[in-house]
Amino acid sequence: MKEKGQALIILIVAVALTLSVLTASLLASISQARASSTSRLGQKVYYAAESGAEYGLLKSLRNPGSCTGSDTLNQDSVSVTITYNSAGTSCVVTSEATQNNILKKIRVENSYTPSQIFTTCCWSEIP
Prior knowledge:
This protein is α+β, with helices and mostly antiparallel strands. 45% of the residues lie in helices and 37% in strands.
């Protein structure tokens, strides 16, 4: 007669263990989804910054004398700011893209050789 409640206790322990495993796997899935979303957004912002740098290079190519000022672009809800600064004979283009507290910066230098050939140098992401 003392063994009547054992089946109920075993059932309760099994249900609790199953719920614990399901909860842990659900939390892991949610965490992975958030990380994936942040990674995709980071890539989107990075490529927008690269597009801004390319825009700046095109502007420098079309108008060699203008290496001052800035431009602002909006690309698929990503805000891109391109700044131009002279550094000796080079023009430094810095593109900064932001969305949802994610910031990416790309810096590239360009110049004209004495024979008027357009060259680029030092394309890099600024941490």
